[in-house]
Write a structure and sequence with these properties.
It is a single chain. By secondary structure, the chain is mostly helical. It has eight helices and six strands, in the order ββααααααββαβαβ. The strands form three sheets. Strands 1-2 form a two-stranded antiparallel sheet. It has a two-stranded antiparallel sheet with strand order 3-4. A two-stranded parallel ribbon has the order 5-6. A hairpin with a 2-residue loop joins strand 1 (3-8) and strand 2. The chain is elongated and about 80 Å long.
Length: 261
């Protein structure tokens, strides 16, 4: 297998020529050989979505050209569509803030943009720089938790809550079907006083509804996004209005109602 050479602040790195990640991802592959659990693709897709929103917001604020915005957005859409799943090899066991995965996404977007614009990955220059363009107005400390919350919220909204509500409704249906079936209750591993099977299933309905209510309560906090806070939450190095615009674009792309922290 042939390699290409990329450089970072530590020097040259050899990367498989058929891969779109860059130097920092390759170093993470070599330095974090821990476990087998790869970063969930839901996080990767959410990071791509957040970076697409960041590109649009940066463009609106005059910090990024429309050409770079559109190219970043195209690459993000390809990632979200699952086209480049194999380009995200990193394990969940890495530094606490998720820096390596953030850079993995930045490098793939940068190199994919280079392929779209110039037909190949250049060894020296990039039209879309992974830090200066893809990661513009971001820190891992705000963009990664933003992606985590987007991924959690979308999973709850699209999968978990509908499944729980469907199960609750089935229990409710069974509680009516079984309302005239009398059975013996059990307590302390012994027979107790009688109840109907429908009454027993009505308890399952209540339990499921309480769980659903608790998830809706937790969702209120999960929908608050720290995007734009950058490294320590102050928003340093972001243009005015960037954070609000970024959340607005995230809502436009997802159809949800996220807010700023």
């Amino acid at each position: 297998m042939s390699n290409r050479i990329e450089k970072d602040s530590f020097g040259e790195v050899q990367i498989p020529a058929n891969r779109m990640w860059g130097a920092q991802t390759e170093r993470a592959v070599q330095n974090f050989k821990i476990g087998e659990e790869r970063m969930p693709l839901g996080i990767i897709y959410a990071l791509a979505l957040a970076k697409k929103a960041a590109a649009y917001s940066n463009c609106d604020c005059g910090a990024l050209s429309p050409e770079k915005r559109d190219l970043i957005a195209t690459c993000c859409d390809e990632i979200i569509a699952g086209k480049w799943d194999s380009e995200f090899p990193l394990r969940i066991w890495q530094t606490g803030s998720g820096t390596q995965t953030n850079m993995n996404v930045n490098e793939v977007i940068s190199n994919r943009a280079e392929m779209i614009k110039n037909g190949e990955i250049a060894e020296i220059t990039r039209f879309i720089h992974p830090n200066d363009d893809v990661n513009k107005s971001q820190s891992t400390n705000d963009i990664f938790p933003t992606a985590m919350r987007i991924a959690v919220a979308k999973t709850l909204i699209d999968k978990t809550l509908p499944a729980l509500e469907a199960l609750r409704d089935i229990f409710e249906e069974k509680s009516q079907i079984f309302r005239d079936i009398v059975k013996i209750g059990r307590t302390h591993l012994m027979d107790a006083t009688p109840l109907t099977l429908g009454q027993e299933f009505s308890a399952y309905v209540s339990q499921m509804q309480h769980s659903i209510d608790l998830l809706h309560f937790a969702m209120e906090h999960a929908m608050e996004l720290p995007i734009g806070g950058t490294a320590v939450g102050t928003g340093l190095n972001t243009p005015d209005g960037y954070d609000e615009k970024a959340v607005a674009y995230i809502n436009q792309f997802t159809g949800e109602r996220f807010t700023l922290c």
